[in-house]
């Protein structure tokens, strides 16, 4: 923000106050003139006297505004200096105004009239100075609060980004260790057991040892690889659609699958060159889709699964675009009253990112799982 902008704002506000009061003084003088015309006997034309009233009411006030708000910049000083400068300027400007008005009006030197005019002139200039000062303080406070809010949001986003980076690093590290170190040790253990089976007696014991070796191979080939894959699914670093294709491709051939997406998703949200969806968000969506598909096939007997990606555009102030991923199946659908703990945990994760996971009846007679996540241009900074 321009550092002189608050000063200009104060000058405009103070000038407007002085001009408005000057016009009010002119109206007051015209009314007074009409009531007392018989005893005035003005020498100059009334138009010049009217102009003189305006100048007398506006001129000293404008000078006070220029000196206090422009030259002294009392808006940037403490309240003791503000009040002292405003009081002195108000008394000087009010006195100058009174002297000119008394001369123009040719009025009797009535004490109450003089006191009222003097007090009015001082209060006018004082208000013209202190109202901009108050406005400056209120505006400055609002700007500080806005800056504080923006800074807090920035820090929260930075903390979230660091947490996401740490989570991804842990996922990659654990996946790498499972795929490398753990699997290697399981292979060695299986080989050792096979060798041990050739040396032990009786035959039943040897067969049991070979069975354990086979179980280790099965754990290595299925469980360990599945855990490693779930930590960092294939294709997730490239894009959400690529990861969905890979995940659905592992389903049995008897289950028909489809992935559809709008042009907005393809061109902007899931563009590999300009991703607006962080890897953590992709992992969350992928986990929801896999959980929904697993429930549909295993518990609902689904023969087809359809995944649709779309973007909801904002409809009101303060809203942002949101990715909406819908999973429909043709199975039996969710049973009434059944609590699915897997989806509940995923919903908790989604709510932590400003989204939600919902479960309900689908359009094909089965179930519908939908995940909604807010997205935006800042998401690529969190990838």
TrEMBL record:
The chain crosses the membrane at residues 12-31, 51-72, 79-100, 112-134. SUPFAM superfamilies: ATPase domain of HSP90 chaperone/DNA topoisomerase II/histidine kinase (SSF55874). One of its GO terms (biological process) is phosphorelay signal transduction system. Residues 140-169 form a coiled coil. One of its GO terms (molecular function) is kinase activity. Keywords: Coiled coil, Kinase, Membrane, Transferase, Transmembrane, Transmembrane helix, Two-component regulatory system. The keyword Protein transport does not apply. InterPro entries: HATPase_C_sf (IPR036890), Sensor_HK_TwoCompSys (IPR050482). The keyword Magnesium does not apply. This is Putative signal transduction histidine kinase.
């Amino acid at each position: 923000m321009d550092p002189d902008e608050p000063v200009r704002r104060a000058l405009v506000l103070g000038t407007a106050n002085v001009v408005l009061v000057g016009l009010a003084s002119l109206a007051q003088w015209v009314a007074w003139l009409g009531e007392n015309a018989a005893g005035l006997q003005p020498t100059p034309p009334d138009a010049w006297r009217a102009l003189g009233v305006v100048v007398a009411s506006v001129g000293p006030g404008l000078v006070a505004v220029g000196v206090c708000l422009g030259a002294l910049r009392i808006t940037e000083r403490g309240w003791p200096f503000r009040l002292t400068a405003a009081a002195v300027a108000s008394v000087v400007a009010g006195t100058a105004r009174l002297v000119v008005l008394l001369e123009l009006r040719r009025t009797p030197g009535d004490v109450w009239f003089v006191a009222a005019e003097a007090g009015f002139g001082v209060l006018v200039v004082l208000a013209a100075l202190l109202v901009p000062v108050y406005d400056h303080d209120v505006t400055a406070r609002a700007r500080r609060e806005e800056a504080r809010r923006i800074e807090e949001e920035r820090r929260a986003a930075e903390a979230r980004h660091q947490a996401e980076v740490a989570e991804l690093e842990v996922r990659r590290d654990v996946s790498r260790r499972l795929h490398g170190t753990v699997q290697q040790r399981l292979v060695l253990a299986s080989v050792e057991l096979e060798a041990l089976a050739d040396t032990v007696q009786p035959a039943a014991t040897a067969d049991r040892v070979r069975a354990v070796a086979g179980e280790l191979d099965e754990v290595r080939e299925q469980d360990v690889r599945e855990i490693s894959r779930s930590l960092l699914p294939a294709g997730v670093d490239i894009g959400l659609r690529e990861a969905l294709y890979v995940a659905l491709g592992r389903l049995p051939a008897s289950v028909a699958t489809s992935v559809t997406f709008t042009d907005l998703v393809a061109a902007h949200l899931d563009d590999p060159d300009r991703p607006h969806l962080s890897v953590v968000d992709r992992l969350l969506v992928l986990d929801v889709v896999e959980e929904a598909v697993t429930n549909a096939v295993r518990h609902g007997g689904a023969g087809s699964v359809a995944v649709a990606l779309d973007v909801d555009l904002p409809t009101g102030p303060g809203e942002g675009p949101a990715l909406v991923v819908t999973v429909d199946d043709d199975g039996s659908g969710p049973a009434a009253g059944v609590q699915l703990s897997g989806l509940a945990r995923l919903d908790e994760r989604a709510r932590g990112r400003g989204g939600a996971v919902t479960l309900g009846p689908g359009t094909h007679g089965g179930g519908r799982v939908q995940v909604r996540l807010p997205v935006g241009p800042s998401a690529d900074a969190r990838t």
